[in-house]
Amino acid sequence: MLQQFYAVLTFFGFGIFFAIIALVLAKIFGPTNPTAAKITTYECGLDTQGPTWVQFKISYFLYALVFLIFDVETLFLYPWAVMFQKLGLFAFIEMIIFIAILVIGLWYAWKEGALEWL
Amino acid sequence: MAEYYLLGVEIATALLGLILLVMGLLVPKTHNKGIANIAIIGFIAIFGVNFLYAGTNASFLNGMYLIDPFSLFFKGLLLIAVFFTCLISKDYILEQGYGQGEYYSLVTFATLGMMIMVSAGDLITFYLGLELNTIAFVILVAFRKNCAKSTEAGIKYVLLSAMSSAVLLYGLSLVYGATKSVLLTEIAKIINQQGIQPLLLIGMIFTLAGFGFKVSAVPFHMWSPDVYEGAPTPITGFMSVASKAAAFAIFVRFFMIALAPVQETWVIVITALTVLTLVLGNLVAIPQTNIKRMLAYSSVGQAGFILLGMVAFSKLGVAAIMFHSLLYVFANMGAFGVATVVGKSIGSDQIKDYQGLWKRSPLMAAVMLICLLSLAGIPPLAGFVSKFYLFTAVIEQGHIWLAFIAIGMSMVSVYYYLIVAKAMYLGQPEEGAEPIKVPGSVQLALALCLIVLVFFGVYPTPFTNLVLDVATAFFPF
Q1: pLDDT tens, position by position, B43-97
Q2: What is the DSSP string of chain A?
Q3: Rounded CA gap, B107 and B90, in Å?
Q4: Do B18 and A107 touch (CB under 8 A)?
């Protein structure tokens, strides 16, 4: 059991070794010519335009929640649909109950205006 | 084919929650005063259904879900607590003016989550119930939309309970790793065979921290005063009794059944927690000036008293835990019922604003006094009987020093409870203060609390026999 992990250990060792070798070789053979632009810290993306502490519309969040519910529903529906013949009537009724509960949730979200973009 | 009829109580509760939600959608916002009544009647009906199962001792889905006297007792307790919560909430939520359907359906789903917790026979079912209960409670705590304190309490609760859930889950996964099983009875068998391992020990400590958070035992109690203060007062009452009782039920089941073979190890840690909780909870309650914060620290202290029953690790200890949790429901719901009405009509939760309450509302002053004295454990009230059993259980096991600390702290608690009584009875109301009108549903709740506390204080025998029977079935050693 433990011996099988020697392969992983070797892999880690070589990984670290190659990373260090690459850095050391670049340090030895590369030309050094630092300019102000070169030594600034690099960050992903572009400079922000204007203040970043703006308020997002809460509707994004509500959309995401409603989406998530139906995403998960599909996740449950799919294996049930594949095994439908085998599972039979009992699973069918169970699935109807499950969907009915979700539909009440959608109904609620709809009625309370979660789907409206004001 | 599994025996689905065993789940009658849970199915009824889920249905009630859905019905309340749909009613909130269908009934126009101007005509929805009746939703509270439907919730109250529904809970009485479910309480009746729960009685039909009396004496059942069965398990569902190979032991993942247990319907035994212990879980049925705690389900009854939860239903009583939620019944009182609905009675107290009725006028409070009407005055808020929004979310009738949401409020009562969330209360129902929180109850469902706690029912799953107390019936859980394996770790995953337990965690499912815990999350259902926590999510519902987070929304309920933040229910006062236009109150910054309530929102703050909601955010605090969601962050801290997420953290404690993470710790708890990590501990449970380590226990699973050490025993290769999630079933509580299986875990006990395997630990019996292989003895204690370091992995199991670490898992045990992590789960203990998670449970400590849920029952607000020191040093994991930091969230409770802030959350209790910010939440709507009926929800504070509900949380302090029901959520705590459900957490104690699974706490007791996990440590006394699954981890029973390593009792010598965990009892040391739990004894330390008990002493800390008793001393800190009761001493810090003294300087509080806000009644909700005072009751929050008092509920920390009460958790310490209930922990005594776990230290005892005996049949009497379990019985005393059940006795104390149930009477705590009546005493605390009574106190929070008064705090709700006073807080609404005066607009403040400060203890000094209770000055001369007996002139403004004799009923509320009397109920508050009786409830606080019962919490303090003064005879002839029910709180004395339950504390007496807890102390007896500890002394029987030879921890006399622990009983001394507990009795000492019980004395301390009398002091801070009587500060409120002094303000109510000896203080004079402000000039021109008018009598406070108590809504009918709250009057009913207060009267019921009063009757139960006095009755079981004078004549506890039938109830004692009941909890001893349940404890014998649960813990046959």
Answers
A1: 999 999 999 998 888 888 888 999 999 999 999 999 999 999 999 999 999 888 8
A2: --GGGHHHHHHHHHHHHHHHHHHHHHHHHS-----HHHHSPP-SS----S-S-PPPPHHHHHHHHHHHHHHHHHHHHHHHHHTHHHHHHHHHHHHHHHHHHHHHHHHHHHHTTTT---
A3: 12
A4: no
Question: pTM (2 decimals)?
Answer: 0.89
Q: Which residues of chain B have a CB within 8 Å of the CB of A111?
A: 25
Q: How many domains does chain A have?
A: 2
CB contact under 8 A, B25 and A107: yes
Residue A52 lies in a domain: no
ipTM exceeding cut-off 0.85 for this assembly: no
- C-alpha to C-alpha distance for A64 and B384, rounded to whole angstroms: 52
Among A65, A93, A104, the residue to mutate for chain B (most B Cβ within 10 A): A104
Q: Residues A33, A62: one domain?
A: no
Interface residues on B facing A, Cβ-Cβ cutoff 8 A? 18, 21-22, 25
Q: Which residues of A touch B (CB under 8 A)?
A: 101, 104, 107-108, 111
- B25–chain A nearest CA distance, Å: 7
Mean pLDDT, range B166-184, rounded to an integer: 93
Note down the domain range covering A11.
3-39
What per-residue confidence (pLDDT) applies to B465? 92
Across B202-231, average pLDDT: 93
CA B441 – CA B234 distance, rounded (Å): 13
Residue B469: how many other CB atoms lie within 10 Å: 14
Task: Calculate the alpha carbon distances from B88 to B375, B396, B440, B470 in Å.
Answer: 19, 40, 10, 30
